[in-house]
Amino acid sequence: MNTIQLQSTITCPNCGTQKLETMPTNACQFFYECESCHHLLKPKAGDCCVYCSYGDVPCPPIQLSGSNSSCCTDS
Predict the structure, then answer these.
(1) Strand 40-41 relative to strand 7-11, pairing
(2) pTM (two decimals)
């Protein structure tokens, strides 16, 4: 059984600030505002959330599935 990591360090592509954040387990996070420069991060094309785009650990649903497919558009 795989251990799911619930924390990811997000790196702002605008200013390089890094922050350790706890990821939600029941939803994707589409937006994240950098505390330093207030740049609004959005997922890159093909990614489901900001953690998959800018974090050092992908979101829990992607960790569970083992793929980089969109985990939050199943409806």
Answers:
(1) unpaired
(2) 0.84
Which of these, 16, 18, 19, 13, lies nearest to 47 by C-alpha position? 13
pLDDT per residue as tens digits for the range 56-65: 999 988 888 7
CA distance 41 to 63: 21
Q: Mention every residue, 6+ apart, whose C-beta is less than 8 A from residue 15.
A: 34, 36, 37, 39
- Tokens 């991060």 found at: 41
Q: What is the pLDDT of residue 28?
A: 84
Cα–Cα distance between 45 and 47 in angstroms, integer?
6
The sign one gets for the Cα dihedral 22, 4, 25, 59 is positive
Q: Considering just the CA atoms, what is the radius of gyration of the chain in Å?
A: 12
